[in-house]
Amino acid sequence: MSVAEAIAVGEISGRLWFYANYHCNLRCSYCLTESAPGVDRREFGREKIVERAREAKELGFTAFGVTGGEPFLLDYMPELIAALGSELSTIVLSNGTVFNGRRLREMEPLADLPVQVQISLDHPEPDANDQMRGPENFRKVVEAVPRLVDRGIGVRIATTLEDPDEADPHEMERLCELHRAMGVPDEDHVVRPIVNRGRAVTNDMGVLAGFEQLGPELTLTADGAFYSPFAPTVRGGELDTDLLVSRTTSPVREPAEMLARIAGNRPAGNDASIGIR
Amino acid sequence: MPLIEAEQAPILARPFYPDEGAPSPITASLASVPEVLEVTLPFVGRILGPSAVDARTKEIVILRCSALMECRYCVETHTAVALDCGLSRAEVRALRGEWEAEAVFTDEDELALIAWVDAVAVGRGPAPEEVTARATEAMSHPELVELTLVAGATLMLNRYCSALGLPTSPATLARLGEEGLH
Lengths: 277, 182
Fold this sequence. Notes:
Order of helices and strands of chain B: HHHHHHHHHH
Number of helices of chain A: 9
Helix content of chain B: 55-70%
Oligomer: heterodimer
Helix content of chain A: 25-40%
Structural class of chain A: alpha/beta
Distance between the termini of chain B: 24 Å
Order of helices and strands of chain A: HEHEHEHEHHEHEHEEEEEH
Number of strands of chain B: 0
Largest interface: A-B, 14 and 13 residues
Radius of gyration of chain B: 17 Å
Radius of gyration of chain A: 18 Å
Number of helices of chain B: 10
Shape of chain B: globular
Largest sheet of chain A: 9 strands, mixed
């Protein structure tokens, strides 16, 4: 089965993910990658991302995703996202803390493209949110989201909770009122569980997410190709390799075909059990 | 050299890990690059594993090569394997270069093979005519092809295991101690 066929029948996701970098201006308690200020950047590289995106589109991938670290700590990120969005629908994950001044102006070309910026916001009140994500995070996010929305840039809000099924309905309603007030409709609000990988393992948080729980979504990083964007995690400063597909990331066909082979060998009925994005 | 334990084994590497117990250091190190592991181990397994050539003959090649290349890991590991394949302690010592091969081995075909391995492992350019003549008399053409490839694959592993300093398993070291072949 070709990569395009594997995508067409849903054997693997049509979205190709890139880990742009691993450093971040926050130090969230449940971070998959132990990202923080001062950690090794492990930057994938602008040219490499563009080159692999081109290969991926030719192979039949239908969308791109970019995550980190905080991707927008890299100066070229708005321009890179515009380049990716000019080719295929693109989502970029951000903590939403760096959208002001020059960076905000650089984001403006994204308004005309199929691009969404997914920003994390976990609680409707500053204290609870900032306890997980760091001081001043809430304020910066509620300031940044309307700025992006006002410029016509697509925004999604991602809420990450210990157990979404046990979430306080009143708190969730306040959170939804908040994102609606910021111009983000309900269909662009995703609620997902903390994944028990990376720093969440150290802090004993989240749900198990291994081969059986995650769907196959090719994810390229400076360390190689992984099974899912939830796979290239870091614990105690060491990269997890349990969901490593290959060290080879180019030509993209190679890890893509390996991923399709892996997905094809999953036991029947072994669908991803966690709907996390 | 990081050795990847079972819980961190990449998906493509998992079939090469045993259901119980630790993987070999070669497997656990190659797992860092799963796309290389999944072609290397079947290749090595095909060349060094069961085939038309008997295990004793293959171990003569492997242990001799490893000793000539001074690969501690391979010598220790294949000393134990060689004993399991029926080689005597004296034959093992001879292959390891501790004793003269001619003083221990009596089979002319095996002595021709040892000379061939010596030429393949440490020689440069074509093997000497005399060595080639003895080898072609002692072995069929398919056997010579296969055993030369056994030597080549062993040389590759010798350099890999030596350069990366792979550790010999405690069980193997204990066995060598018991046999007086440490």
